[in-house]
Design brief:
By secondary structure, the chain is an alpha/beta fold. Helix content is 41%, strand content 14%. The protein has a single domain (2-127), classed as 3-Layer(aba) Sandwich (Rossmann fold), CATH 3.40.50. The protein starts with a helix and ends with a helix.
């Protein structure tokens, strides 16, 4: 929640990019009470190419009207990291299901255990 508060304070645009099926993605957003927080949802399954292709992130950038260099992605999978990085987005690896060194080797700008890791907010503050 601290990361979402940080983003809200800066009035940042937020979106979800996922390979999850539509029903799963919207169920999770509803269950976590985040549906209104993430008005843009890009589903890789509904595009010609899903992750690890950069198309899902490129689509989100277009829908949000933002540049890749002014964006931060958060990913917990190798395919997600490859997708975001290939789209030119600085990406934070969330080491929830993969080893931190694996995510770092794929090019993550930062790897943290979860969104509550104090290093994440410090890094975000440094990004501006």
């Amino acid at each position: 929640m601290d990361v979402l508060a940080w983003a809200a304070q800066r009035q940042l645009k937020l979106g979800v990019v996922t390979n999850a099926p539509r029903e799963n993605a919207y169920f999770m957003l509803q269950a976590l009470k985040l549906k209104d927080t993430f008005p843009t949802v890009v589903l890789g399954d509904e595009l010609p190419q899903g992750k690890p292709d950069p198309l899902p992130y490129q689509t989100a950038l277009e829908e949000l009207g933002v540049q890749a260099s002014a964006t931060i992605a958060f990913e917990d999978s190798p395919s997600g990291l490859r997708s975001a990085i290939a789209a030119g987005i600085p990406t934070v690896g969330i080491a929830s299901t993969h080893a931190p060194d694996e995510l770092s080797a794929l090019g993550a700008a930062l790897v943290v255990a979860d969104f509550a890791d104090p290093a994440l907010l410090t890094w975000l503050e440094e990004q501006g």
